[in-house]
Design brief:
alpha+beta, globular, 60s Ribosomal Protein L30, Chain: A
Amino acid sequence: MAPGDLQEVLAVLRGAAARAPEALLVGLGRADDAAVYRLAPDLAIVETVDFFPPVVDDPYTWGAVAAANAMSDVYAMGGEVLFALAVAGFPREFPTALIAEVFRGGADKVAEAGGVVAGGHTVVDAEPKYGLCVTGRVHPDRVLVKGGLRPGDRLFLSKPLGTGVITTAAKNGVAAPDVLAGAIQSMLRLNRAAAEVAAAGFAS
């Protein structure tokens, strides 16, 4: 959904956002990658959900890419991944062996992040979709937010831009195989190290 359309839809929740408890450090009141809720002076949870239809042909790779993408929201907030719940929809006739490969790809990528897939929810859907609801943790004083940038700050990219353009081109048969392979490898790489570097910068 386009940002403008989403803001129009979420307008009905503005009252709820205004009544949110102080422990909700990041919620509907600001546009960001994930929600953050403080549990203790030195502990907050980071919660996000993200899913999408296939962006590659191989089901295992699709699951892994979708998982890495979902976990990136936790990393973007400066957090550490704890566990995830799978969110998926598949056509009734979709082969179960392929669904299993999607789930395996996602679970392996979460394990690479030091977390675990602890459950999830599936529905029958005309268009296949897969992703994760990810729970992480972060120190309440070290939360990274999109609105924190100031003029003069230096911006570091943890990955190259343009993977969405490349996968869209691939769907239309106009992406060179080596270019698509590079985009897939980029999408499979976790932003864990970048989050750890950012956290270290906070601590120093």
